[in-house]
Amino acid sequence: MSSMMFVGGEKGMIPAEIDLAPPKDGQAFVRLLAAAFNKRDYWITQGKYPGVKLPLVLGSDGAGMIDQREVIINPSIGWGDDPNYFADDFKILGLPDFGTFSDMIIVPEENIYDKPGHLSWIEAAALPVCGVTAYRAMMTRGRAKKGERMLITGIGGGVATMALLFGVAMDMEVWVTSSSEEKIQKAKDHGAMGGVNYKAEGWDKALVSQAGGRFDLIIDGAGGKGFAKMVHHMNPRGRIVIYGGTAGNIDDLSPQRIFWKQLDIMGSTMGSPEDFQNMLDFVVKHKIKPIISHVFNLYEANEAMAVMASGDQFGKVCLDIPWE
Amino acid sequence: MSSMMFVGGEKGMIPAEIDLAPPKDGQAFVRLLAAAFNKRDYWITQGKYPGVKLPLVLGSDGAGMIDQREVIINPSIGWGDDPNYFADDFKILGLPDFGTFSDMIIVPEENIYDKPGHLSWIEAAALPVCGVTAYRAMMTRGRAKKGERMLITGIGGGVATMALLFGVAMDMEVWVTSSSEEKIQKAKDHGAMGGVNYKAEGWDKALVSQAGGRFDLIIDGAGGKGFAKMVHHMNPRGRIVIYGGTAGNIDDLSPQRIFWKQLDIMGSTMGSPEDFQNMLDFVVKHKIKPIISHVFNLYEANEAMAVMASGDQFGKVCLDIPWE
């Protein structure tokens, strides 16, 4: 197969031909037509994951064909039977198993789902990780309801933009934060009520003032110093779901606010097979298309990675995979 | 009625005779036989609650008689119809309405429940606040299950000792922390597997080592610096329920640990009418008796308050109410 192999160092990823062993019982062989990046791919190249052995084919998101069947891949490998938590041998596609930055892949058959018909190949490849992560965080964990006021911190990444689309589709009032005025405007273009720049003095009070009230649900991928402020601006019985921690550890959190308002602060990662199916059903029902920020050719994967490193994207950074 | 009125200053509480208006429709007149203290009573005297008008009869916990019927009082006044959160006009008995440090009280009829037959008057008065708070925190919010490993931080207070009894009754493995070796020993006398002194260096690792594994559920009334350590020692999908914050704000909390383990950190306060009834049923079924630390006469209420201020109690500080 033709792949971009991550070899580390200055070379980053380089083109390589690999021989694939034929699929075993219960495995499917997929010819990939598109792939997409996640922050995880970047963190792996930065040495933030243990146990990386080079060379490695990165990539957790992919869509393609099994003979004439159009499919997308659920990247949660071996979640197991418990909807509440993944099994001990759970892994995310792309480490240690070879991932989707390749024209072919072998994955468990149970991870194969039909590609939603309203999505292009690029859109389909953009969906799996951010779709299932946003769905589990918002719905399964966060119990999002129509009409509620939801805040998405740090809009721009895949999960955050997907949560925005989900919230708008189900008639929530969606608000965002960002360090970029341009991203706030883009979020409004996609249906957000508004947002504030979290680098501005007093951003949190300005946000509550603009929103006309406190929040019922927060989807947070940041943590850090802003988190405690958000707890202050929750409605009673509000829920905060944490799916990432790019801003570092959380400080100065008031236990009194948490117990008196009976808040739920919950962690969420990826999703169960049921979450994945429910996400697909929701996406099909509401004809949701993931927001695509950049599309590169497979062999331009290092340029795509540079966008991930910059954090400048709004939506997904994708790879178009040529067949030779 | 004969009451101990909180008048503030050096006098604290003083004996006083008050004329009660006759009960209105929907209200019950209870002749009190016993009352009990909560940390709340102490905090009120320390000016930690807004809107206190003196003189005030303190006290949220009480048991007594309505004619020949033996009753205890649910101190959650006006919780309302939503089991998830109390209504806007919710209040806890003893502020602003006159509380239980008195030989008579008028409360809503819906807050009257039959006194469990296996409890003495003092034990019955010790039950309501800590019983319902521990029950909601552990069961309704914390989803405690038989066989799970539970940690109760800062053992000694009413809620913590009641959570200990509940956990032992339902065959959980219960562990505790305290700054007092004597309290750890007392907890073991009541069925705890063991505990550590949180003032010792490396207490958290020592605790996990003693316990032979990580925790499924933590009942925490402290917050503060120890909290982040505890998050480190949770099992995947563990739950931490916060019902107090005596150690202050929480720092250095890792979002990565929260999302990867899919933890739930939840606040809980008091309980709904359903929680109160379920708590009583549980207490009757398991013949649980609240742990009584000190008993004073009503007119010794200032001495009882001094114990609350010291934090030296293990279990409830109670008042025996004489009839004249």
Shape of chain A: globular
Structural class of chain A: alpha/beta
CATH topology descriptor of the largest domain in chain A: Quinone Oxidoreductase, Chain A, domain 1
Most extensive contact: A-B, 36 and 36 residues
Tally the structural domains of chain A: 2
Tally the beta strands of chain A: 17
CATH superfamily of the largest domain in chain A: Medium-chain alcohol dehydrogenases, catalytic domain
Largest sheet of chain A: 7 strands, mixed
Give a written overview of the molecule.
The structure is a homodimer of 324-residue chains. With 324 residues, chain A is α/β, with parallel strands linked by helices. Chain A has 2 domains: 2-127 and 290-320, Medium-chain alcohol dehydrogenases, catalytic domain (Quinone Oxidoreductase, Chain A, domain 1); 132-267, Medium-chain alcohol dehydrogenases, catalytic domain (Quinone Oxidoreductase, Chain A, domain 1, Alpha-Beta Complex). The first copy, chain A, is built from 10 helices and 17 strands. In chain A, the strands form 4 sheets. In chain A, strands 3, 4, 5, 8, 9, 16 and 17 form a 7-stranded mixed β-sheet that branches. A 6-stranded parallel β-sheet of chain A has the order 12-11-10-13-14-15, sandwiched between helices. The first copy, chain A, has a two-stranded antiparallel sheet with strand order 1-2. In chain A, strand 10 (149-152), helix 4 and strand 11 (173-178) form a beta-alpha-beta unit. The first copy, chain A, is globular. The mean pLDDT of chain A is 96. The interface between A and B is large, with 36 and 36 residues. Strand 15 (264-267) of chain A pairs antiparallel with strand 15 of chain B, so a sheet runs across the interface.
